Amino acid sequence: MVGVLVVAGCSGSGSEGPPGWVSSPPEYLSCDGFADPQLVVDLVRAADLVEPDPEEPSVKTDDEEPSVECHPLLGNQIGLSSSPVDLSYLAGGFWPPDPLMVPIRGLPGFVMHDSGWLYVPCTRGSGTVTLNSYISADTAELRNPRVRLAMARLLVDTTNRARARFGCAESALSLPTELPEIPDTDQAKFPEQREHTGGEVCSIAALSGLPGYQRPGPGTGYDESRPWAMETPRPSRLLSTCEIREGSGGVRGTVPGTPKVAFVTYRGVLARARHESEKYSWPEYDLSCHGEPVSYRMYVTDPDDSDSWLTELPDDPAYERMLDNFAGKAADRAGCPISES
To answer: Left (φ > 0), alpha (ψ -120 to 50) or beta: where does 212 sit?
Structure first.
């Protein structure tokens, strides 16, 4: 599993210009050669993190595993890691990916506001493993594109350095120069007609299939409780999420509103993990599209706790019909219609 951790830092600048560590990044930020110090500084500044401190970074490596874990800043504000992927772990999570994830263009990875993942092969001799690279940054700002791009660049760079250090045969990946636009989280900006569309894969019309669901009607407080849908950008080589929520309240640093239902399409290694799992495979929804694995999943919230997702779908045919409808539309859109047989 490959992971990258990012440390935050606040870089205030005075009237005399930026401090020396900005214009001449210290070598101790390199994680013993696993990170570009300048890219670490770029992230520290973009996320307004804590100024670096000249203390030995925490670096753990195992060339045989192969794996690396590094925290270039004090307080683990930035963390980087890379290690062989655990397919059983990937398959076992029964919760939807956050809809604020955006893909790293052309690569099997994505970034959140405070973390990112990248899944790439590492071939040594006759064997190949998939590395899971991970990065995290100590920030709660949901929609800062500078932070996301800085994380993505550091994540890819660290992955390249890890693969080179571990003797992987694959060539270096290009550092991203831009990312897709971050999905909007302001429920008030969604036009009213969005509520009345029914032919889309990601539409609040799906709420009509939830057993016992009562849609809030016009009147006092309606604008604060009406449903809305948010979808991760496409295309993605790993996943796409459609999450339908109600309202606009919530805790700072989280997506506003109350989640109701989520539909997810997994691809690449995330789909393969589900296909190969005896415990978590859903044969009807673990399919092949253009020769590549794809998995369709649906998640619903706990009726007794709207902040928690159920660990499995309730035993009610209504939920299966909802998932069938989603999988059919998503498969059609991907050009791989599901056979009626």
So the answer is: left
* Residue 258 dihedral angles phi and psi, to the nearest 5°: -110, 120
Share of the chain above pLDDT 90, in %: 61
H-helix segments, the chain: 20-23, 37-46, 87-92, 145-165, 222-225, 268-275, 317-333
State pTM to two decimals.
0.88
Pairwise CA distance, residues 273 & 271, whole Å:
5
Coil, strand, or helix at residue 11?
coil
Helices (H), 166-246: 222-225
- Band the pLDDT of 21: cuts 50, 70, 90: confident
Say how far residue 265 (Cα) sits from the centre of its chain: 13
Residue with the bigger pLDDT between 248 and 199: it is 248
Question: Could you give the CA distance from residue 293 to residue 324 in angstroms, rounded to a whole number?
Answer: 18
Mean pLDDT of the chain: 87
Length reported for the chain:
341
